[in-house]
Amino acid sequence: MFHGATSYLICCANEESQAGDKTHHLFDSFEELSEPCPADGVHWSKGDLKCGIEQVQKALSHFAKLRSHPGWIPDRFQDVEGRKFSFVHIDVDLTEPTRESLAFFYPRMVPGGIIVCDDYGQSTSPGATQAVDRFLADKPEKMLMLPEGGGFLIVKTATASPARLEQRIPIRWCSFGALTLPIGEIAVEKSGQCSRVVTIKAQQSRSGRFLNRRRCE
Asked: Which of 11, 15, 32, 131 is found 20 to 30 A from 190 (Cα to Cα)?
């Protein structure tokens, strides 16, 4: 939750939505980050991200369709165990609360509902990424990564498997903006999210290192 910026955007979207009367539920300790486990890496520590409920309530005081559930995850999930959800945003940074959130909300999502995991694929939260992948291992949906980090899935909508490499094209020169680099290759592959993904591998003339660029078309 932290300062409530994402919740502010969600509440704004709810007010403008034509999909019906939605209530935004906030689940957070409103204290601090809990103790990370070894899978969470070294970025986070117990006590990080401390922000009191009063500060969050002040930031969101404009919105009427709002309910706060202070407490550690998953202790307060029982408050809404009889409800169905169309949109769930998970941003809890650590392995266990990520897993607990998915385990509770996934079976309570309406078909076509969206689950967003803000920490998915982030180098700062490796445990959250592992928790998502393990939870979805036997599910038809898979988390789709977003360009700026994080990911989402659409419930009851199967995700296409990654496509194998289709073609490799050797090249002598490749330009990245104003920079021209010698020797490399272009790999073109199909993807469930785009018509093709172009990966360009080019060697830096001075250092000998290789650069990789991917473009979705």
From this structure: 131
Name, in order, each residue with C-beta under 8 angstroms of 4's C-beta and a sequence gap of 6 or more: 26, 55, 56, 59, 60
209's CB contacts (< 8 A; 6+ apart) are: 203
Annotate 12-31 with b (16+ C-beta within 10 A) or e (fewer): eebeeeeeeebebbbbbbbe
pLDDT mean over 153-159: 93
**What is residue 161's predicted lDDT score, i.e. its pLDDT?**
72
| Angle, alpha carbons 108-62-18 (nearest 5°) | 50
Residue range 32-55, pLDDT digits in tens: 788 889 999 988 887 676 667 778
Strand partners, 126: none
Q: What are phi and psi of 115, to 5 degrees?
A: -115, 125
> So what CATH class is 165-216?
mainly beta
CATH says 5-154 is which class?
alpha beta
